[in-house]
Amino acid sequence: GAVVSQHPSWVICKSGTSVKIECRSLDFQATTMFWYRQFPKQSLMLMATSNEGSKATYEQGVEKDKFLINHASLTLSTLTVTSAHPEDSSFYICSAKSRWETDTQYFGPGTRLTVL
Amino acid sequence: GNSVTQMEGPVTLSEEAFLTINCTYTATGYPSLFWYVQYPGECLQLLLKATKADDKGSNKGFEATYRKETTSFHLEKGSVQVSDSAVYFCALDQAGTALIFGKGTTLSVSS
Fold first, then answer.
1. Residue A107: its chain B contacts at CB < 8 A?
2. Strands A19-25 and A111-115, how do they pair?
């Protein structure tokens, strides 16, 4: 099946630093990628939808300037948490849709972000 | 707006017991419906899906039928195994947009 990778898988950073998380589709072209956030014992909350070559569409309540999303190619999307604070600590998961299989999303393994 | 409601967990069963995890949805039109599973320490994986009313998705002994009249997509398995212990998420996808997830149901199966 289709594989999506994320890097890094775990990151710990000091408050005020920026953290970049990469999401790659390894064996397919992803026209659309999604970024989710998962709090402990809760479901996934969609943060934004990104289409290759265009600006991301953010969900209500998600700060665009805080969570910068770039989808520069058909296999890579990045999420940058700018000036991270402890309340940004969470599990960030990306998913990708292939242009050929538009009703199925393939998920990355997630990135655990801890901000001290 | 669109939403998914699934039964609260955790669900604790003995091996070979029958499993039902209820899922109902609210949506306009005709969404596609999914069950995703997250095994401990692993990514979310698609378990099964149904794209139109009365479709039955099935995989690994799990089944779910898209019931438009009751807006439901309950997950069932006739005989669970210890290896089925995981978190199960019901989700819907309308018009090719992002998935909307239920809160997840933790299943624990003991031998």
1. 36, 43-45
2. unpaired
Q: What is the pLDDT of residue B9?
A: 85
User: Is the previous residue joined to B31 through a cis bond, with omega within 30 degrees of 0?
Assistant: no
Contact B99 A46 (CB under 8 A): yes
Q: What is the pLDDT of residue A104?
A: 82
Q: Which amino acid is at A9?
A: S
R_g over Cα of chain B: 13
Measure in Å the smallest separation between the Cα of B92 and chain A Cα atoms: 10
- Is residue B8's pLDDT more than 90? no
Smallest CA–CA distance from B52 into chain A, residue: A103
Instruction: State how far the Cα of B110 lies from the Cα of B56, in Å rounded to an integer.
Output: 28
Percentage of chain A beyond pLDDT 90 is 53
Give the closest of A42, A46, A106 to B103, CB-based.
A42
Distance separating alpha carbons of residues B33 and B102, to the nearest angstrom: 11
B94 has pLDDT over 80: no
Task: Indicate the burial class of B71 (C-beta count within 10 angstroms; 0-12, 13-18, 19 or more).
Answer: middle
The answer to whether residues A7 and A21 touch, using CB atoms and an 8 Å cutoff, is yes
